[in-house]
Amino acid sequence: MKKIILVLILIIAASGCSKAADSGKPQIYTSFYAIYDFASEIAGDKAEVYNMVPSGTEPHEWEPTVRDMAKLNDADVLFYNGLGMESWIDSVQSALDASGLEFVKLSEGIQAGDDPHIWLDPQNVKKMCRSITDTLCRIDSENSEYYEENYSNYSSKLDALDQNYKDLISGIPGSKRKIVVSHQAYGCMCSAYGLEQVAVEGMSAESEPSPAKVEEIINYINENNIKYIFYEELVSPKIAQTIAGETGCELLPLDPFEGVSDSEGEGDYISVMNTNLENIKTALGDE
Ligand SMILES: [Zn+2]
10 CA to middle of ligand 1, Å? Predict the structure, then answer.
């Protein structure tokens, strides 16, 4: 990172810090795919929105390149999640201190403990979109009515999604509301809907579980009569497959909506979350 910052200072010095957007529209950068999707919903065609993390990449492990830093130097706003999702944010913020780039942390004011995956509760997404809308209205006040209308339409969709989850999960007996997942991303979803998660890997999706942990999960599956293990496109399914083999469980996808894989293409939050709900229904519903 130090090397990147040094090169960046040279780029800034050479470019003279001028903001040059060809389209004249606000230039909005987002720190990973979920934030990109939310910002795009509000911005519509009135601002240019960019996702910094390339497809097929797990955002927990990603860091910006020199080229990314140069792009940020010319941007108006960077929307990011916070709560440790972007390990690089502090050094980038101090390196770009003089660039005029505004950093907007979307987890501000959201209670989530130490779980950064706040967007897996649609009510939190409404709050994140409120911050996005306020920022866009401020930097591009001419289009504020347009942004407010997008917010209002999108927040109705988020309420409907939230209701779908409540309706379905309230019909599942409490003793069956247990999910085994690949990385510990579903804390906010679980507390919103009364589910319980057991994760094969940690919160940042890179830690391999110990043999003792694997054994513990196998026991949990057997004791709770669990039939499905959830996996993710961007995390290796190797351990989930091993556990499935040991327990006779089947594998089902559950997407934490952190990034997009090359094979999936771009999905939007509402449709991904509805697909997740279908898979939860398969896993927890009647046999
Ligand atoms: Zn994660």
Answer: 34
Residue 203 C-alpha to ligand 1 middle, in angstroms?
6
> pLDDT digits over 35-46, tens only?
999 999 999 999
All CATH 3.40.50.1980 domain ranges of the chain, comma separated, are 2-163, 172-284
Q: What is the dihedral of CA 239, 241, 245, 247, to 10 degrees?
A: 70
- Please give the mean pLDDT across all residues of the chain: 90
> CA triplet 278, 279, 285: central angle to 5 degrees?
85
Contact call for residues 39 and 49 (beta carbons, < 8 A): yes
- State yes or no: pLDDT of 203 exceeds 80: no
Separation of CA 40 from chain center: 14
How many angstroms does the Cα of residue 123 sit away from the middle of ligand 1? 18
pLDDT tens for 63-77 read 999 999 999 999 999
Q: Which of 70-79, 82-91, 197-206, 207-216 has the lowest mean pLDDT?
A: 197-206
CA–centroid distance, 106 to ligand 1, in Å, is 16
Cα 53 to ligand 1 centre (Å): 14
What class has domain 172-284? alpha beta
